[in-house]
Amino acid sequence: MRSRENGFSLIEVLVALVILVVGLIGVFNLHLVAKRGSFESFQQSQASYFAQDIINRMKLNRTQLIAYTGNYNGSLAHPNTACEVTVGASVVCSVSQTLAWDLYKWEQQMLGFSEVNADSLNVGGLDSPSACVSALANGDVTVVITWRGIRELSDGASNNLDSFVRNCGTASDRRRVYSVKTVII
């Protein structure tokens, strides 16, 4: 009489474990790709917000429109007058003081100075941002924001037909670009 054993052999268990491990590695890699994609998407949303922010600041200070033209990478000094527009603010600024404050605050936001972690490191804003603004007297405005992405793809501006966009920021296979052209009346 033959005895029958119930259960799994050692080989069957090892094959099942190998299949499980391969599946878990795939899920882990998918998670990493999703996190990177989410971060890249967040950075682009931030760039869009910053571009609209400076355009709105320019609309509110239309007499100084041409003076907003320039390249910005975090090198502006703190202005003498803080022209905060908050409830209960009592500071009255001239248009040139407002211009200096707008550009300074805009740069600080892009660099993430408003969000600091426990180690006093800036965690908000864009990674290595540069911004270029071109404003003409007729109201034509171009805002270009570049930053460094987390993975190497291709230079986001190298194939752009507009030389203003191509020349903003530092060329790199991680450079990402967001640009807006508009008219301020």
TrEMBL record:
Keywords linked to the UniProt accession: Membrane, Transmembrane, Transmembrane helix
TM regions (residue ranges): 13-34
Coiled coil (residue ranges): none
Record carries keyword Transmembrane helix: yes
This protein's record includes keyword Phosphoprotein: no
Name of the protein described by the UniProt record: Type IV pilus modification protein PilV
Taxonomic classification: Bacteria, Pseudomonadati, Pseudomonadota, Gammaproteobacteria, Alteromonadales
